[in-house]
Records
---
Amino acid sequence: MSSFTHPFNPLTPSEISKAAALVCPLFAGQSPSFRVITLREPPKHEMIPFLASEHRGEPAAARPARVARVQVTVPGDSGPGKFFELLVDLDQRAVVRREHLAGKHPYIDSSYMKAVEKACLGDQRIQAEINKLELPPSASVIVEPWAYATDGLNDMSQRTTMCWFYMRLVSNEDANYYAYPLDLCAEVSEQLQVTKIYHLPSTKDERIHEDAKPFDRRKIQSMDASEYHPNLRPPRRTTVKPYQVVQPEGPSFKTRGNFLQWEKWSMHIGFNYREGLTLHDVCYDGRSLFYRLSLAEMFVPYGDPRAPFPRKAAFDLGNDGAGINANNLRLGCDCLGLIRYFDGWHTTSSGEPLKMPNVVCCHEQDDGILWKHTNFRTNNAVVTRSRILVLQTIITVSNYEYIFNFQFGQDASIHYEVRATGILSTALINIGDRVPWGTVVAPGVVAPYHQHLFNLRIDPAVDGHSNSLQVEESNPMPVNDPMVHNPFGVGYTTSSQIIGKEGGLDLDFTKNRSFKIINENVINPITGTPVGFKLLPSYSQMLLSHPQSYHARRSEFGEHAVWITRYQDDELFPAGRHTMQSTGGDGIASAIKARQHDASKASVRNEDIVIWHTFGSTHNPRIEDWPVMPSEKMTVGLKPANFFTGNPGLDVPVSTQEKNKSVLVENDAQSGSVCCRL
Amino acid sequence: MSSFTHPFNPLTPSEISKAAALVCPLFAGQSPSFRVITLREPPKHEMIPFLASEHRGEPAAARPARVARVQVTVPGDSGPGKFFELLVDLDQRAVVRREHLAGKHPYIDSSYMKAVEKACLGDQRIQAEINKLELPPSASVIVEPWAYATDGLNDMSQRTTMCWFYMRLVSNEDANYYAYPLDLCAEVSEQLQVTKIYHLPSTKDERIHEDAKPFDRRKIQSMDASEYHPNLRPPRRTTVKPYQVVQPEGPSFKTRGNFLQWEKWSMHIGFNYREGLTLHDVCYDGRSLFYRLSLAEMFVPYGDPRAPFPRKAAFDLGNDGAGINANNLRLGCDCLGLIRYFDGWHTTSSGEPLKMPNVVCCHEQDDGILWKHTNFRTNNAVVTRSRILVLQTIITVSNYEYIFNFQFGQDASIHYEVRATGILSTALINIGDRVPWGTVVAPGVVAPYHQHLFNLRIDPAVDGHSNSLQVEESNPMPVNDPMVHNPFGVGYTTSSQIIGKEGGLDLDFTKNRSFKIINENVINPITGTPVGFKLLPSYSQMLLSHPQSYHARRSEFGEHAVWITRYQDDELFPAGRHTMQSTGGDGIASAIKARQHDASKASVRNEDIVIWHTFGSTHNPRIEDWPVMPSEKMTVGLKPANFFTGNPGLDVPVSTQEKNKSVLVENDAQSGSVCCRL
C-alpha cells in the first residue's frame, strides 16, 4: 500500500498518535484529556492546484501539509479546567497554533454523561428526593444528562449539565425509561457536584418548585404500550416475507481507500468527529461539481416555555458530534444488499486512536424508472431503470436517531435524505391534564412540541470555483398591457436575479422560486445560458423561537432557508464553532454582518461561494411516534440545470428481464414465469 | 370461480358485451361507435351497508346493481355527429338513462389520431406546403394531432384537431421526430377535412403567417444529440452491474381477484378508461381509512403566448384517458422483483371487450429503515426495515410519459408518487434566437415552458363517513404579553380551525400549516384528540394562466392546492366531466359556487367529505430533459395522526442478516462474508 495519504483523507491511526505525542509535552504534568484529534482540512488555495493535477492524472507539484486539529482539556486545581485548541503540522512535527478557548466548552460525550449520572445518583440529597417520590419497589432510576441550552439564567462560562430523571419499572436494561419521566431535575457542575435540585411543573400553570409529589401509581402502563424492545413485547408479526438483493456480478462501485467511483461519479469520502460523513471533490464524468458537501449543524429546540424546559435545545453536531455518535452499521443490519463499509477514527482521552468501525455504508439501490418513452406509433418502449448509490450514516443522540443518506443518481442528481426516528423526549404531566405545547402519549407522559432544523453546507465548484447564485421565479405575463403580447392570458416567463452579497434568502413555491448555482464563465453551447446545478429544497417552517431568544441568537441559521456566503477556510459551522453553552453572535448571520462592508469578503457574484440550506420539521408529536417513531423523511436535491448537453443518463442500458430476473406472481402462486419480453 | 362480482370490480368482458348488446338497438342503423363502456360505480349510500356487511364477514342484505356507463357517437349524415351517454342496468337488462351531450366531445384516441394524420398528409394543399419547406430528401413528415385547447377563437361545439408537424430525417420508425418541428400547422375538422393551414412564428415577435420558409439545413443535428432509441445511439455504458430482487418465500401480498391484502392493509383495485388505477375501501387492520383514492385529473398548459400555442393545454385524463393510455408493464420491464399484474378492460368501437393486459403492477420494495433505536447505555440496537407495497401504472400521452405509484407502508402511511418522463414537446425557432418562454434544446428547436398540474382525489372514511378537515398551524407564543408565560421566548403552540364550508385552500409551510382529515366522533383514548390522517402535500406553484383565461376557466382546480367538498355521487373530475374543448364553468370551483347557499350540500364539517390536492411542477425545460427526460418525482403522502394508540409498525420483525442475506464488499472484491451479527 502506498504511503501517500490523500489531503482529504481523515487522519490515520498513526497520525492521531503522532499528533497526541506532539501535543502532550505542552501539557506535561497537567493530565490533559484529548477531546478531539481530527484532520484540519487544507486551505482551499492549496487544494485547488493539487486537485487540478490529480484530475489531469499528474503528480502534484506540492502536497498540502497534513495538519491535525487537537482539542484538549486540562482539569483545574480547584476551579474549572481549561479548554485548548491546537493545530499540529504533522509533516513538520510541530505545534503551529495554540489557543486557550476561554468560556468555550468541548462536546459532551457518553463517558462524561455516565460520570454525571453517577455523581447525580450518588448525591445524598438526590437520593432523599428520590425517596420522597415513593417509586414502586421494582423501579430503578435513570439520569439522562443533557447539555444546558443557554437561557440567560446562569453563567455559561462554567459547564453545567442538566439531569433529567426517568425510571425503569422492570429490571431489563433495554426497558423504555422514557415512558416514566420523574418529577425531579438537577444541575451538575463541571466538577461533578450537584448544584441545584428542584421539582418540575406537572400542569400548564405550574412552575419549578421544591415539593416532591409521590409518583402517581395510575401512571403505570402495560408493557405493550410502553416498550419497543422485542424482548419486552408480544411476538412480532409473521407476515413479512424475506426480501433480498442480489448482484451476481458484484456492485458497480469501486473504491480505492477513501476514493469512490460509481457511474461517472467520483469523490473522496471524509469522516470526522463532528460532521460525520463529508464528501470532497465530487465530480461527474471528469467535471467538477462540488468541492465539499456536509451536514453542517442541526438544532432541536423544544417549545415548552416553562423553566427549565427552554434548556432543551440540542446542537447535535456541535454539542455531541455526528461522527462520535455514529452507529456501527454492521451490527444493526441497517443496510441491504452488497455493502462496503468505511471506518472512522476518533481518539481516546489519552490520545490513542479509537476505531469507529462501519460508520458509513455504501451500496446500490434500485430507484424505479430513470426514463421511459413508448413511441405510440410503433408501440416500441424504451425503459431504463434508475440505479442509485447510497452512502449512509446513522447517529444516536440519547433518545433520538437520525439517518443521513447521500444518494447519487445516473441523471447526475444528488439527494440528501434525513430520517428522524428513535424515541420522543418526554416530560411529566398530571393524568388528565393537557398542555398546548405537547401531546399526551401515555397517562402522565407528555411529548413536548419541538423542531428539528438541519443545515446542509454545499460548497460548489460547478465547472470551477467562480460561481454565482441565480434566483429565478416564474411569473405570468401581464394581460391588458399594450407593450406585452399575451392575448390569451396564458403566457408566462421567468425573471431572475443574481445575488451580489452574502445573506439569507427565503423559499417561495408560489412563485416557483428556484435557486441555481451557476458558473457565469461557462456557457452551455446549446441553451446559451450559464451551466449550473439547481437546488431542490425541502420546504419547512423556520425557527419558531423569538428572534431575541437565546435559541435564535445561538442558532442563527434557522432564520432563513438558503444562505449564501463567500468561501472562507474553516468557516464550516452555521451556529459557530463552539455551540456548547454558547451565548450567540457566532453563527452565519453574525459572520455575514461582521464583513458586510468588506467587498473583498462579502461579494458573492462570480466568486468562490458556499450555499447553506436550512430545512427540517416542526415536530408536534402524534401517538404513532410512540414508543419509537416510524422514520420521518426529509429530502433535499441538487440536479443539473443546463450543465450538460443532454440527458446524462441516456447511455444507461435498457431494462431487460435477462438482467432483472423478475418473477411473475399469479394469484398468490409464484409461477416462476418470465416477467417481460425484452 | 364464484359468479359474484364485487360492486367495485371493473366491468367484466361479458358485462361489456352485455352493455353493448343492450345499447345497440337504440342506435339501429346509425352505425354507433362505442367510445366508453365502463362501470358506473354504485351510489355510496348503497355501498355503505354492503361494505359494513363485508367487513363483518356476513353476506350483504342487498347487492348494489351492476350499472354500465356507455358513451356512444353516431356519425352525422352531412354534418357533425352526435355524442350520447347512457346508463345501463345490467341486472335489469335495461337502459335507464340516455343523454344527448350536445356540444360535448368524447376523448381522442390513437385510432382517431391516425385518421387525422392520414387525412392531413393526404390533403393536396398540405403536400404543396410541405414541398415549399424543401425538406432534405431523406425526410418523412409526421403529423402529431392534439386536442384543441379552447382559446375563444373557434366554435368549440365542433370537434377540431390541431396538427403539429415534425419530420424524421432517418428512415427508422423510432427516430425522434420531436427534434425536427416543422414550420407548418393545420386544423382538421370532425369530418377529417383540413380546414386551416398556416405557418408558425419562428421568432419572439413573429405571428402566424402564410409564407413558408425553406427548412434551414443548419438545423440538422447529429443523431447522438437528437436520438434516444438504443438502435440509433452509440453503445450503452457497460458499468452497470445487474441488481435483482429475490423473495425466496414469495411475496407478502395476497390477492383474490381484485381484492388485495398486504401487511394489515386491504383494498379493492379498480381500473377504468379515464382515471386508470382507482383504489376502493382502503382499510388498515380492519379499520376504514379511505373510501376511494384516485388521480382525478391532470392539466398540462403551455406558456407560449403566441397563437396557436395557447391551444396546447392537455387534460390527459379527460381528453385522452389514463386507463386507455396505460402501458402494458410486462413488455417494458417497468417493475422489479416478484410482480403481480392486473389487467384492465376497455371496449372496441363495436362494443367488444378489449383486454388491456398488465396495466397495473403490484410488488414489494425495500424502503430503508422503518424505525431504529440504540440504547446508548447497553449498545443494543433494534432496527426494522421498511417494506412497502407498490401499485404502479404508466401512461403514454403522445410525447410524455407519466408514472403513477401508490405506495403503502408498514407505518400505515400512503404515498402517491408521480414521475414525469418521456419527450419534451417542441416548437421551431430561428437559429440563434431566444424566447422568454422556452429553452433552446437544439439548433432551431425550442422546448416551451409549461406546467404539469395533477389533482389527487381523496375520499376519506376515517373510522367512518363523518369526517372533518382540520387546518392547523404552529405559532410562536408572544413575548412581552403579561397574559402569556413565555419568559425565554421559545414557546410555541398550535392553533387550528375546522373548515365549515366547501372551498379552496392554500399551503403555507412558513406556518407549518397542516391539513388533517379527522373524525370528531372518535376520540383517541391516549391523546384525547380526534382520530385522523394528515396530508403531506407536495408544494408547487399553482396555475400561472390568468384567472380569466380559458386555461383557468376550464381547469379551475389549479387555483388552490387543497379543495374540500361535500361528497356527491359521480362528482369525480375537478375540471368537469367533459374536458375536450370545454369552455369552462364545469369544474370544482363552479360546483362549489353553485351550491354555496345550500347548507345541505355545502357544509363539510362532520360530513361525508372529499379532499382534492392539486400539485405538480412548473416545468421550464433544461437541456438535461432532452431528448428524453430523466424522471422528475413529485410525492404526496397521507399518514395517521393520532389514529392508532402507538406506532403501528411496532410489531414488524427486526432486521436480521439471516433474512436479509446482505453481502460484504471489501475494497472492490466481493468477499461473501456476512454483513451483520444479528
Note: Residues 417 and 635 of chain A are 4 Å apart (CA to CA).
---
Amino acid sequence: MDPSPRSGCAINAAVEVLGDPWSLIVLRDIMFGNRRHFRELIAHSEEGIATNILASRLKQLVAAGLLSRDDARRGQRVTYSLTEAGIQVLPIMVALGNWGLAHRDGEPRLRVRAALLRDGGPELVAAMMDELRELHLGIPRPDPDTPRPSKQLQAAYQTAMRDATGGLSDGDS
Amino acid sequence: MDPSPRSGCAINAAVEVLGDPWSLIVLRDIMFGNRRHFRELIAHSEEGIATNILASRLKQLVAAGLLSRDDARRGQRVTYSLTEAGIQVLPIMVALGNWGLAHRDGEPRLRVRAALLRDGGPELVAAMMDELRELHLGIPRPDPDTPRPSKQLQAAYQTAMRDATGGLSDGDS
C-alpha cells in the first residue's frame, strides 16, 4: 500500500493517489474506453502517454489498490481490472468532467460523453458503476434487462463523430 | 491562460489544472480554512507545504483562472480569492473526500468535515458554494437568513477536537 500519508485528511488521502494527471488519464481510459492491456492504452491514448509513464502509473495504481493485475501466463497479455476502490473513482471523474465542460473549451467529439454523464445525474453514474462491476469484477448487474450505460455513451459518441467528420468512425476512444 | 491542452477531453482539461497534489491541497485550504494570505497558508498547512511549492501553485492557479490575486499596496498583504471557476471545484473536493473516507484511514479530527459534506448531499454543497461566493466574490447569499454551512462544519470540527483531545481547541485548520 501507500507510504505514510502527509496528513490524515480524507481529501489529502484521495489526492495522494489521484492528484497526478497521468494516473487520472489512465484510469479514465480503462473506465470509459475499456482498455485493459498495456498496448491498447498506449496505442489509443488521446494525450500521447509515454510508455515509461504508463508503466509507472499502472504500477502505482495497482499498489494503491485501484487496479488489479492479472498476471499473464507465458505468451499471454497482462490484463488490468478496476477494483471496487477504482470503480468508485467514477464520481470524481464525473465531477472533473463537469468542471472541464463548464470552464474549458474542447473538442465536441471528446466532450459528448462527459455531457451525457453530467446530464444523466446520480442514477446514470450508479448504473455505470454497476456495469463496471460486471465488466471488471464479474458481479452481475442488479437490473440485467436495462440497457448498459456504455451503449448509450458509445451511441452518443458515434453520433458526434459522424456530425464532426461527415462520415463513419470506428467509435473507439 | 493555459498552454495548449494535451487533448480536447473535458476530463483532461480539468486534470491539466487540478491533477497536481499541491494545487488541490492549496485550493482546499483556501476553500475550507478561508486562508487568504501566503503566510496563513504556510503556517497552518497540515501537509507542510514548502514555500516555493506554495508560491508556484498560487501562480498557476491564478494563471488558470481559479484564483484571483488582489495586488497589495505597499506594506499590505496580497489577498487570494476564489473565482467562480475556483468555487466550482467544490464538488470535485467533495467527491475526493468521499473516496478518501471510503477507502483510506485517517484522523477523525480531519475527516469530520468531509463526512458532513458527504452526508449533507447536493443541497449542502450548493449552500456552501453560495457562502464561498459571498466570501470571495461579494455576492450576497440567496437565503441570507439560513445559517452559514461553514458554521456547521466548524461546530462539527470543534466537537470532534474536543472528543479527540478531551479539551479545548482553537478550531483553526
Note: The mean pLDDT of chain B is 89.
---
Amino acid sequence: MNTYSSKLLENSVNELSKLPGIGKKTALRLALHILKEESNYAESLGSSIIELRNKIQYCKTCHNISDSEACEICANPKRDHSTLCVVEDVRDVMAIENTGQFNGVYHILGGIISPMDGIGPSDLNIESLIRKVSEDNTNEIIMALSTTIEGDTTNYYIYKKLSHFNIKITTIARGISIGDELEYADEITLGRSIINRMPYENSLSEERF
Amino acid sequence: MNTYSSKLLENSVNELSKLPGIGKKTALRLALHILKEESNYAESLGSSIIELRNKIQYCKTCHNISDSEACEICANPKRDHSTLCVVEDVRDVMAIENTGQFNGVYHILGGIISPMDGIGPSDLNIESLIRKVSEDNTNEIIMALSTTIEGDTTNYYIYKKLSHFNIKITTIARGISIGDELEYADEITLGRSIINRMPYENSLSEERF
C-alpha cells in the first residue's frame, strides 16, 4: 500500500516538500498541522500563496516587489532620488529599511554575478541601472552587496560600467562588527579595518552616546 | 513605511509563519521562493492545501486520514481485523506500515492523555475503541504508544477499561534499540530490558541472519 493513507495528503506533502529547507517529514508535519487547524486557515494560507504569485508586480524603477507599478519607496517624494543604493535582492531592501539610516532609493539587481551558478551580468538588472544613471539626476551610487568574491566581482563590474559618468560610487563600510571582540575577528577583516581606519568622531554613533 | 513593500507579500508571510517551526524570516524566504518559481507551482501548492483541508475524511472505523469513509487498511480484506494496534496519530501508522511487520488494523487515538496540556480521556477516540472491542471479534490489542509518562498513563487507562473483555492486551517491546551500545543506554531502559529478557532465539531476526 501507499505510505500515505490519502492521495490528498500525499499531494500536499509533495507540494510542500518542494519548498527550500522542507523535507518530506517536515512537510508531513505541516500538512497534519493544517488539518488540525480551522478550515479557514487552510483557505487563507492557500489563497495567499496563489494571490501572491498571480498578482505581484515589480517596481518599474527599482525592481522591488510591489503591489503596483511603482513601489512605495520610489513613489515617495520625500526620499532622496539622487542617491541610489544597489542591492542584491528584496531582503536587503528590508534589512536596510529596518536600520532607518537610509533615505535614498534602491536598485535591485536580482542576484550577483556568479559564474559558478551560471549567473552573468546579462541575467541581472544592470542595463536598467546604467540607463537610470544616464537619464536621471543621480549623485551617488552606494554599492551594498555581500562582502564575498561574487559581491566584489559584481561591485567591480558595475564600477567599471559607471566610471565614465560623473557620479560618486561608494560601498557600505566594511570592518569589525559592532559588539565583536578583536581576537575573534578574521585576519582579512581586521587587516582591512586598519588600512581603512576612520576619524574617531565618526565612530561615535547616536545610539551609543 | 511598512517593512514589506507589498501587502500581498506581507499577507503570505503572515500566513506561512503560522505553520509550526516557521518564523517570519523563514516564511519570507519561502514566499520569495514561491515568487521565483513558475506560477503553476504556487497554484498547485495553494490549491493542494485548500483541497486537503476541505476534502479530507477520517476513516469511520480507525480514525485514520482517508480519502473515503473507510481507509485503505480497514477496507482491505487481507488484513487481520481481529488484531488492533492502538496508536497516537497518523504518523505512527505510517511508521509501523513502513516496517512491513504488521498485518492487523489500527485504531488512532488522536493524542495521548496529558493533563498538563489539558487532554483527558474524553478528548481521545477511546469510547469508539471500547465499542469496537465489545462489538467486533477482536483477539488482541497491541498498545503502540510513546514510552513516556503520558503514553504509560494512556496505556494503563485503556488497559483498565478493556480488562473485563476476554482479549489479549500487549505493548510493543521496549528495550535496547538495535545498533545501540550498552554503555550509552539509559539505566531505566537497561534495567527493564534485563527484567524483560527474552529467549535468545527471538532475537534472531530475519534481516540480520
Note: Residues 103 and 130 of chain A are 21 Å apart (CA to CA).
